[in-house]
Automatic annotation (TrEMBL), chain A:
SUPFAM superfamilies: MetI-like. It is a multi-pass membrane protein. PROSITE patterns: ABC_TM1. It comes from Mangrovihabitans endophyticus. Its main location: membrane. The chain crosses the membrane at residues 9-30, 103-124, 136-163, 183-202, 238-263, 283-309. Residues 97-306 form the ABC transmembrane type-1 domain. It is found in: Cell membrane. It comes from the Bacteria. One of its GO terms (cellular component) is plasma membrane. GO terms for biological process: transmembrane transport. Keywords: Cell membrane, Membrane, Transmembrane, Transmembrane helix, Transport. This is ABC di/oligopeptide transporter inner membrane subunit. Belongs to the binding-protein-dependent transport system permease family.
TrEMBL record, chain B:
It comes from Mangrovihabitans endophyticus. Residues 8-257 form the ABC transporter domain. Keywords: ATP-binding, Cell membrane, Membrane, Nucleotide-binding, Transport. It comes from the Bacteria. This is ABC transporter ATP-binding protein. It is a peripheral membrane protein. It holds the Pfam family ABC_tran. InterPro entries: AAA+_ATPase, ABC_Ni/Peptide_Import, ABC_transporter-like_ATP-bd, ABC_transporter-like_CS, Oligopep_ABC_C, P-loop_NTPase.
């Protein structure tokens, strides 16, 4: 299993490398020049100054030379400096990553807890009133994009409850209440899709397992609902749920880009968003590499969890 | 002959399944009793309703099945019990083992985990004590290295070992009635004999009654005290195994016996089979449900339901006009079919 994990990690590095190259080339293909966007508002900028700035950022070199230069630095852990203020990309990410980590974990926790509760409640009496109502909730969760849900939540709370989340970010250490007040709504919006797909998957998986022969045998021995539902049925339904969880973790990561910008949260998402707008290539690339790495790690963990849940799973 | 109160009595049991085409009767009016320590064989082809009857006794039929009639366990009717109340009946009063031991064991938990869970479900004891008991049970069902095998998962065991584990799990409940639904059908013939021998030994040791659901008349001859033969959801013959084996009354029972190949069976001839198949509950024939496949059907068989005639002063029963006529001396009949069975029944007449 260790060998398997190592091999997966190696593939993961390869994936991240390919993503990096692709994004690097894609960024250059996007219209708009980094220097001109930066200096667009500055009055009286001359063409000489623009050329000077371009040379200073190394953007006058051929694209492949720039790529090799970036990759050379990235391998040693140096992702370069931001085009806008020259601060190190590594430092920027180190500042922002914990914020997004908190948001992502909150979203995932909301999605998993609500998803599991809804999924189980629906499977106990399929097609009952509760199941029908919960189906409406989860289908809505699946269909509504997270940024729109985020906007709706903010708007409705502001209009009907007269409450809006704070707009100035506070770390959980300095003011936990204020931090949660700001983070909960975007986490809810981000977690809704995960909640919905986990609930749907767990429901159908549970219903199938509850019909299975071995569950019938457990009941034939006189086991109560606790043993049948929570011990035997749930664990047997978990494999597809974990698959969904891995995919949804990716969705949550992607969703942070827009939701952090909407809610004014200074995390990786808003950093990426601003960097793309400013054509701040090194920052965009650094963020993409981190997002990619998190996604790869999540998927390796999910694949290893299969083996923890099911003793029949063998890694080769 | 019968003096003790029956451990379990099924009276006029009907089971209907909801289908898109409306309710369908899988079991119609089945009655039989099981005495303490007795082995009753419930016999019939696939589709005769024997497994449905067994599952109905455990109240394990699931959604979409409607149950009517009485199932009395120790004098208590269990047909109206809630799922919660049934938990005290399942396991303690009766438990069930199934045809396919692979799909009947939870693949995600070790043998030991499932055994300890079941032992502690029915006995208040410490985990360590339950592990001891689990080891003992594995030893009793003939599993070598029981302590080591506690850690094995079902997929690491052979088919025979899995069925032994299933039996150990049933014993962990100390039931008074063990329902075995085709327990050896999925196993090799050599293993089959071992498993049957094991069940018989444990039945004596644990003083259990046994309801053996099977289609195999050889198994019946080996194991049963009493036999209940089912066809298309009805009991067609019942009585002491000895008598039924020696002198079957119903043409269906006779036909079932004809299907057992013997060492003297002519190998160049095709194996005997009952022509046709059990009718689907959607399209039951009028009159006797067996008449389209019966070698000795006559005019009366085609119309009107055949009652279950008591014979030998009520010790056995047969749902055939011929048995009724033999009892009453009536003999007016016109043969309407001569099905192509190499007439076991005809030969008998």
């Amino acid at each position: 299993m260790v060998e398997y994990a190592l091999r997966r990690a190696l593939y993961g590095v390869l994936v991240i490398f390919m993503v990096t190259v692709f994004v690097f080339l894609a960024l250059r293909a996007v219209p708009g020049d980094a220097v001109r966007i930066q200096l667009a508002d500055a009055p009286g900028v001359t063409e000489e100054q623009i050329a000077e700035r371009t040379a200073a950022l190394g953007l006058d070199q051929p694209v492949l030379t720039q790529l090799f230069h970036f990759l050379g630095g990235a391998i040693t852990g140096d992702f370069g400096a931001s085009f806008s203020d020259g601060s190190s990309v590594g430092g920027l990410i180190a500042d922002r990553l914990p914020v997004t980590g908190q948001l992502g974990l909150m979203a995932l926790a909301i999605g998993v807890v609500l998803g599991v509760v809804i999924g189980m409640a629906s499977a106990v009496r399929p097609n009952g009133l509760l199941d029908q109502s919960l189906r409406l909730v989860s289908v809505s969760g699946l269909s509504v994009p997270s940024f729109w849900l985020g906007l709706l939540l903010v708007t409705y709370l502001a209009v009907y409850a007269g409450w809006s989340p704070p707009l100035i970010y506070q770390g959980p250490a300095e003011n936990l209440g204020g931090n949660l007040a700001q983070m909960t709504l975007p986490a809810l919006a981000l977690g809704a899709a995960a909640m919905a797909s986990i609930a749907r998957m767990l429901r159908s998986s549970l219903l199938e397992v509850l019909q299975s022969d071995h569950l019938r045998t457990v009941r034939a021995r006189g086991a109560g609902r606790g043993t049948t539902l929570f011990k035997h049925a749930t664990r047997n339904s978990l494999l597809p749920v974990f698959t969904v969880l891995g995919l949804q973790a990716g969705g949550i990561l992607g969703g942070t880009v827009i939701l952090e910008s909407i809610f004014g949260i200074p995390g990786m998402g808003s950093l990426t968003f601003e960097a793309v707008q400013m054509r701040d290539y090194p920052v965009v690339l650094g963020c993409v590499i981190v997002y990619g790495a998190v996604f790869v790690v999540v998927n390796i963990v999910v694949d290893l969890m299969y083996g923890v849940i099911d003793p029949r799973v063998r890694y080769r | 002959m019968r003096n003790a109160a029956p451990l379990l009595a099924v009276h006029d049991l009907h089971v209907d399944f909801d289908t898109p085409a409306g309710p369908v009767a899988a079991v119609s009016g089945v009655s039989f009793e099981i005495e303490p320590n007795e082995t009753v064989a419930l016999v019939g082809e696939s589709g005769s309703g024997k497994s449905v009857t067994a599952l109905a006794m455990m109240r394990l039929l699931g959604r979409g099945a409607t149950l009517r009639g009485q199932i009395t366990c120790d004098g208590r009717d269990i047909t109206g019990l809630t799922e919660k109340q049934m938990r005290s009946v399942r396991g303690r009063a009766m438990t069930m083992i199934f045809q396919d031991p692979m799909s009947s064991l939870d693949p995600l938990y070790s043998v030991g985990n499932q055994l300890v869970e079941t032992v502690r479900l029915h006995n208040r004891m410490s985990r360590a004590r339950a592990v001891e008991r689990a080891t003992e049970l594995l030893d009793q069902v003939g599993i070598a290295d029981p302590r080591g095998r506690l850690r094995a998962y079902p997929h690491q065991l052979s088919g025979g070992q899995r069925q032994r584990v299933m039996i150990a799990l049933a014993l962990a409940c100390s039931p008074r009635l063990l329902i075995a639904d085709e327990p050896t059908t999925a196993l090799d013939v050599t293993i089959e004999a071992q498993i049957l021998e094991l069940i018989r030994g444990l039945q004596r040791e644990y003083r259990m009654s046994l309801l053996l659901v099977t289609h195999d008349m050889a198994v019946v001859a080996e194991m049963a005290d009493r036999v209940v033969v089912m066809y298309a959801g009805q009991v067609v013959e019942s009585g002491a195994a000895e008598q039924i084996l020696r002198q079957p009354q119903h043409p269906y029972t006779t036909a079932l016996f004809q299907c057992i190949p013997t060492p003297v069976t002519d190998r160049s001839a095709a194996l005997t089979a009952i022509p046709g198949a059990v009718p689907s509950p959607h399209e039951l024939p009028p009159g006797c449900r067996f008449h389209p496949r019966c070698a000795v059907a006559f005019d009366r068989c085609v119309t009107g339901q055949v009652p279950l005639f008591p014979l030998d002063g009520g010790a056995r029963h047969s749902r055939c006009w011929l048995s009724g006529d033999a009892a009453s001396g009536r003999a007016d009949r016109t043969v309407v079919t001569s099905a192509s069975v190499p007439g076991p029944a005809r030969r008998r007449r």
